[in-house]
Specification:
Layout lengths: L9 E7 L5 E6 L3 H4 L5 E8 L10 E5 L3 E4 L7 E10 L2 E2 L6 E4 L11 E7 L2 E6 L11 E8 L5 E6 L4 E4 L7 E8 L11 E3 L5 E5 L4 E6 L4 E3 L3 E4 L3 E6 L2 E2 L6 E3 L5 E3 L8 E9 L2 E12 L6 E7 L4 E6 L11 E8 L5 E6 L4 E4 L7 E9 L4 E4 L3 E4 L10 H4 E3 L4 E4 L10 E10 L6 E7 L4 E4 L7 E10 L2 E10 L23 H6 L2 H52 L6 H4 L27 H8 L33
Parallel strand pairs: 17-25
Antiparallel strand pairs: 1-2, 2-5, 3-4, 3-6, 6-7, 6-8, 9-10, 10-13, 11-12, 11-14, 14-15, 16-19, 18-23, 20-21, 20-24, 22-23, 24-25, 26-27, 27-30, 28-29, 28-31, 31-32, 31-33, 34-35, 35-38, 36-37, 36-39, 39-40
Length: 636
């Protein structure tokens, strides 16, 4: 079958013939690159100024090795490409070449005005030709009085007005022509006027549509005449002008805008008036700025493509786009670009990697430049890493080999590229690489294994989406084909855990659960210890109650019913310092079998709720002089 030519035509040349014709010639592509029988050639051409816009290009098909392009614009630079075609399709385009058509005589000026300036003068103004067809060298302004021959007046090309003076009363006709190096063009329409001493307010400028480039300066003309001098008022988008440093009215009446911005686009009107009349001129200003980016979204995806949806910006009319540039790259890859027409709603990026993440954004461009980028969109082609097969389906064990059924390893939707096969004896530290380039499909046999031996097999499967690793433990058969008993502790090896168990054993799940359990246990221990400390003093008091009661009763009996010194002196509490707590007991009083704190507790009439003994840190006064507990209460 034939294919498209893989090389462009050679030695492409262009020659300008006239103001509207160009000849293009070339040599056929090399025979080895034709890839079939060349049926025809296509010449793609268009103005160089708008070459980026596919809508401005034309195509001419010819079977010969040269052609003449007719009907071109005069004095215009053209770009051309040539390609060969076969039954297999269009071939590669040649590099663009450029030729400019010749100059010609210009078209007529578009409009003419004649305005009274005084009793002997008239102002003539005009608009340049729509198609100058070359470089205008000068204008000729023709003045003709009634019943007289016309008189030409040469005016520089930079000037679009002329003052006719020293006129006599009567009617005058005026018309204008433009000239290039080729010659004088056609005359404009005729404007008539008569001099007068009454000069109404009039504007010599014309309604114009101005196009300004973003951030450049622009001047909107308002050339006015009148006696007395007219009042001039500018309105911007229907509202009176608010002068600023950037937008201001010049002394002659024109409006100057510095550093044109997008928001300056719109209508500007100049109003003049005096006691004899009024006049108005309206200009439309368009600002050529880099276009706004379209809104980018993903319409669909496949294993090797992404279909993008492009929605023009809401402000697209302010700065029309000539085309879009799609920027895309695979994650960790390099940026690539593709240009598409601005009228494209959807576009499919082909030949992408399967199961891969891509970053994408779009910029719009026009003759001014490239605008800002759209938001970055993240998308993924379909497909995943190859899933791990079951050991029973994937490996077949022999006495000295193991066979891998590679077809059992599914590709996850992305074509498999290769396998890496490694093995080692169970318990060994290092892996032995068998092969790192096993092709997918068919079977692969690992040889030279020892019979009746446990091994671990590690397989790494690769596709465009990534790779997956699986380890299989197996025991080779005995020389007679028998199986080997599992190693100690291997009773459950080889059994795959349920998916929910695997999910719980993932580090990102297991670690938070263990941390929560530890925190809970620590909290319970702290609470228990706190409660135990609070209850300890009460338990200790309860254990000594029987002993305290016996000592107390004996002391009361020796004092004769409790009418001793404590009662007479208003209680022992007033005579005592603080007592050390039970866990800080004083040395025992010689001849006694209980400590000072115990004596105080039972010889003084102090309730258990009121006692200070467990919290005091000072000794009782005078107790160490007494050896007998019964004398401890008898103070001198």
């Amino acid at each position: 079958a034939e294919g498209a030519p893989s090389a462009p035509p050679q030695d492409v040349l262009c020659t300008t013939l006239t103001a509207q014709t160009i000849r293009v010639s070339w040599i056929s592509p090399p025979l080895a690159s034709a890839n079939g029988l060349i049926k025809a050639y296509k010449v793609v051409y268009g103005p160089s100024e708008t070459w980026y816009d596919e809508k401005t290009k034309d195509t001419k098909i010819t079977a010969s090795s040269e052609t003449i392009l007719h009907g071109l614009k005069k004095y215009t630079n053209y770009s051309m490409e040539v390609l060969a075609t076969t039954n297999g399709g269009d071939g590669v385009r040649s590099a663009p070449i450029h030729c400019q058509t010749e100059q010609d005589v210009p078209e007529a000026p578009r409009a003419v005005k004649a305005l009274v300036m005084g009793a002997d003068s008239i102002l003539v103004s005009w608009r340049p030709p729509a198609q100058p067809n070359g470089v205008v060298t000068h204008y000729n302004v023709y003045t003709q009085a009634q019943n007289a021959e016309p008189h030409p007046n040469k005016v520089p090309a930079s000037q679009t007005s002329y003052s006719a003076t020293d006129l006599k009363p009567g009617r005058y006709d005026f018309w204008v022509t433009a000239s290039t190096i080729i010659g004088e063009g056609q005359p404009s329409a005729t404007a008539s006027c008569s001099p007068s001493d009454k000069v109404p307010a009039k504007i010599a400028s014309f309604d114009e549509s101005f196009t300004a480039t973003y951030k450049e300066d622009v001047k909107l003309p308002c050339l006015a005449v009148g006696v007395p001098p007219p009042n001039i008022l500018w309105k911007v988008k229907g509202q009176p002008l608010e002068a600023s440093e950037r937008v201001r009215q010049l002394p002659e009446g024109s409006l100057q805008i510095a550093g044109v911005a997008r928001e300056d686009a719109g209508e500007y009107s100049c109003h003049v008036d005096n006691q004899f009349g009024t006049d108005t001129v309206t200009h439309t200003l368009s600002v050529l700025a880099p276009p706004f980016p379209p809104q980018l979204s993903i319409a669909s995806s496949s294993v090797s493509s992404l279909t993008l949806r492009l929605k023009p910006s809401d402000n697209a009319d302010q700065s029309p786009a000539a085309g879009y540039t799609i920027h895309y790259k695979q994650e960790f890859g390099d940026w690539e670009t593709v240009q598409i027409p601005s009228n494209t709603d959807t576009y499919t990026l082909e030949n992408l990697f399967c199961g891969s993440r891509y970053q994408l954004y779009v910029t719009a461009y026009n003759s001014i430049g490239t605008g800002e980028a759209s938001d970055v969109v993240i998308a993924r082609t379909r497909g995943s890493k190859p899933p791990v097969p079951r050991a029973a389906d994937f490996i077949e064990v022999g006495s000295s080999s193991v066979t891998l059924h590679l077809k059992q390893w599914l590709d996850g939707g992305c074509p498999m590229s290769h396998f890496v096969v490694e093995n080692k004896k169970k318990g060994a530290a290092e892996w032995n690489q068998i092969s790192n380039a096993v092709k997918p499909g068919g079977n692969f046999v690992v040889l030279d294994l020892e019979p009746a031996t446990w091994y671990v097999l590690r397989i790494t499967a690769h596709n465009n989406a990534g790779f997956n690793v699986a380890e299989y433990e197996f025991a080779t058969l005995t020389m007679t084909g028998g199986t080997v008993a599992p190693l100690p502790g291997n009773a459950y090896e080889g059994k795959e855990l349920p998916p929910w168990v695997k999910a719980w054993l993932e580090p990102e799940v297991l670690v938070p659960i263990l941390a929560t359990i530890v925190v809970f246990i620590v909290g319970v221990v702290v609470i228990c210890l706190t409660l135990a400390r609070r209850n300890t003093p009460h338990r200790l008091r309860g254990q000594k109650d029987v002993y305290y009661d016996a000592v107390y009763n004996a002391s009361q009996a020796a004092l004769g019913g409790g009418n001793g010194t404590l009662d007479k002196r208003g209680g022992l509490r007033d005579e005592l310092g603080y007592i050390a707590p039970p866990n800080r007991k004083l040395p025992p009083v010689p001849g006694s079998n209980y400590n000072t704190c115990d004596r105080v507790k039972r010889q003084a009439v102090i309730s258990m709720e009121d006692e200070i003994c467990p919290y005091a840190t000072f000794h009782l006064l005078g107790f160490r002089e007494e050896m007998d507990p019964s004398k401890a209460l008898a103070f001198p």
